[in-house]
Amino acid sequence: xxxxxxxxxxxxxxxxxxxxxxxxxxxxxxxxxxxxxxxxxxxxxxxxxxxxxxxxxxxxxxxxxxxxxxxxxxxxxxxxxxxxxxxxxxxxxxxxxxxxxxxxxxxxxxxxxxxxxxxxxxxxxxxxxxxxxxxxxxxxxxxxxxxxxxxxxxxxxxxxxxxxxxxxxxxxxxxxxxxxxxxxxxxxxxxxxxxxxxxxxxxxxxxxxxxxxxxxxxxxxxxxxxxxxxxxxxxxxxxxxxxxxxxxxxxxxxxxxxxxxxxxxxxxxxxxxxxxxxxxxxxxxxxxxxxxxxxxxxxxxxxxxxxxxxxxxxxxxxxxxxxxxxxxxxxxxxxxxxxxxxxxxxxxxxxxxxxxxxxxxxxxxxxxxxxxxxxxxxxxxxxxxxxxxxxxxxxxxxxxxxxxxxxxxxxxxxxxxxxxxxxxxxxxxxxxxxxxxxxxxxxxxxxxxxxxxxxx
Length: 456
What we know:
Heme anaerobic degradation radical SAM methyltransferase ChuW/HutW, iron-sulfur, 456 residues, 2 domains, HutW, 9-stranded mixed beta sheet, alpha/beta
């Protein structure tokens, strides 16, 4: 049985800080699919065939931002009002076409997520139009419908328009409340304005207000991070994600640090290292839980039950996610799909399709992947490890036995605890959960089960 430090981490008196050198990726996965070509016949077949998925989501991408954040590596298009409105009109035409298909109408959707980009850069009229189009899709009772974005520019007109058109969950990228840290990250608005706005929005009777906080930003000391946690608790929001900043290739932060240049007044080296970020995570988790916030995943907590985080939890379960918009990703009938980001080619595809008699959604430029034969198994791993508990009844007995050497190594290194019914991650394991997922997939690759039929 091959075990390597990449799979198991290393022995350390403080595994939270030292089990791995760095967080090696934002998400974990393994090669289970191959690129395929999809012709018009297959595309038409997909949309005319009822879904067999038990749980479903709708993802809609708005690829516009008014400003590029220093940590972002996928800025796509400037958010000029006319450009955004043109895009929303074309997007709604595609949604309208899709809403009448057998694929869409065959089963209800559990959740809808409008992401980006910065969806809150849409105008109030655009928000309302998009919300009304979403209503054409069948949804379960109480479906979670999320609008992602930032607080800057999200005025009462947009807020009321979004509520009236059906949005009931709002996710704002705050990252830090500290004004100087925010400016270094390319964020807008000062601390006091953010707190005032979040408090006002959180008073709504039913809508869920969620924010993202990052730890490890340039200039973000332990003291500032501690104040960020105090601020998010005082703000009245219903949920919070704590994300570790990763140097993404191509981001302004990565480029500046590579050249030894400052980021808007902060020295390039003045940023928490991996060990300090580990302590920041520990402090954040303990602070929230001591304040009676419930942990829903390794990075997400809620103050009360109105926050459900349905899309985020189901997306890790391998559900069907129908993607719409330039840059959107998802899967149809088990086939992976990632629309290309080039907006011009996205428009061109629709202009060409409009000359035909088809009433189905346009097949825009995209990458398609064959179904992953291990999709259900991989989803069980990701869902369990992300939640901090991998129940063994979600796996076969043979698979559990095959993984025991790896799980025992994690336990020896302080990353997990084994019981008869489950693997429970420690605080250190939750912090390194993406590394653990990557290690698990590497373990399965290097230690192939003798009887593959027993794996699922």
